[in-house]
Every structure is written in structure tokens, then in C-alpha cells.
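Exercise 7.
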Amino acid sequence: MTLCLLYLIFVRLTGWIALLTRSAASKDAELLVLRPEVAVLRRQNPKPRLTWVGHAVISALARLLPTALRAKESQRINALV
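Solution. The predicted structure, written as C-alpha cells, is:
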């Protein structure tokens, strides 16, 4: 168990170090390669439709957020529309 945990930590750390040392050009190339894959995945998994129960749950959870955060999110959504 401990060995497995150490291995996972090591893999994560080396991945982060590899990301930090990459150039901007290689990151841009990766984005260009992955963009079509993301488009395919979006077509395969359409946006889920919420029922009235889902809307009620999301509304109730949103009420738990601080008022300042709700106002900021509301402004962001209105800017998109």
C-alpha cells in the first residue's frame, strides 16, 4: 500500500515537472492535436437535459454559495448570453 502511494506521488510529481519544463510551442501543438478529439467527444456526449428536480437541486446548492460569489457568477453568465 505504501509503495503504491509513493509510486503515485512520484508519477504525479514527474508529470508536473515535465509540464513546467515544456515550451509554449509544444503546448500549442498538443492543443491543436487534441482539439478534433474534443469535438468528437462533444458530439458523442451531448449536454444533459435537466428535469425540474435537477434545477431545484442546483438552485438549492447555489443558495449555499456566498452572495459575492453568486453575484460574480451571475455576471459571468450574463456576459456570455
